[in-house]
Amino acid sequence: MKFAPLAVLASLSLGVHAHFRLLFPEPRGVFVADQEPNFCGGYSDVTTNRTTFPLEGGFFRIRQGHEDWSTSVLVSVAPNPNSFDTFKSGGEDLYARFWANESKTGNFCIPLDLSASGVSGVEDGANVTIQIVLNGGDGQLYQCADLTLSSNYTFPSDIQSACVNETADHTAHGTETSTSPSTSETAGSSGSGNGQLGGFEHLPVLSALGAGVVGALIAIAL
Ligand SMILES: *[C@@H]1O[C@H](CO)[C@@H](O)[C@H](O)[C@H]1NC(C)=O
Ligand SMILES: *[C@@H]1O[C@H](CO)[C@@H](O)[C@H](O)[C@H]1NC(C)=O
Ligand SMILES: *[C@@H]1O[C@H](CO)[C@@H](O)[C@H](O)[C@H]1NC(C)=O
Ligand SMILES: *[C@@H]1O[C@H](CO)[C@@H](O)[C@H](O)[C@H]1NC(C)=O
Ligand SMILES: *[C@@H]1O[C@H](CO)[C@@H](O)[C@H](O)[C@H]1NC(C)=O
Fold this sequence. Notes:
By secondary structure, the chain is α+β, with helices and mostly antiparallel strands.
């Protein structure tokens, strides 16, 4: 009867994707972990409470808890971007920002100059939608934000000042004041940044699962 609990653990661990949070601009709706592998993180329809976003010199901010990830940004000028096809033209993805890779975990402010996308209709006053695509090594994850572009908009100081990179690799520990050791950290897993990323609501579950899986593996080895 050893197989049943192992199978449960295996399927649970498969469900632990390399989730990320889109912190700015605000996504279409509240974060739902299970939905993140789906189009726009499960929010398929456009919202009306758009975020004003600069045409040039913008950025997006994400929190990423797994090492070795890459991200890209797609843009759509469709009135209701509700499918992956609405982020394509002639079958090609409309990139506002092509894939870039990063090894560290933490919070990242990533420059996003939408005017440089060259996508027709991305202009002053336009309503557009961006879809942040993140690859953490186990498939792609998605979050969307509905925007209104402005060529004369500058970020308020609170948004501007929140934009700092706060990486959470081992060497950064000393700079973090609210660090609490996590079980996955002592296990030396790739979730070592989790201690810093206390904002993840599912973190206790993740840590518990991590410990459970490690425990199960040790049990087998013994
Ligand atoms: C828009 O409204 C929805 C529902 O109230 C909310 O979840 C979402 O965060 C809002 N988005 C923005 C960009 O304010
Ligand atoms: C942009 O979207 C807002 C909110 O949905 C809407 O009120 C406005 O008319 C739209 N503007 C354009 C140019 O389509
Ligand atoms: C960067 O990420 C992309 C997409 O995940 C991948 O195809 C590529 O090999 C990565 N490049 C490097 C240098 O790691
Ligand atoms: C944050 O890190 C990203 C990725 O390394 C980099 O592209 C960006 O310029 C940095 N942003 C700030 C505000 O330091
Ligand atoms: C900024 O641009 C918008 C159009 O995108 C316009 O309605 C507004 O008046 C402009 N504001 C200033 C301060 O120039």
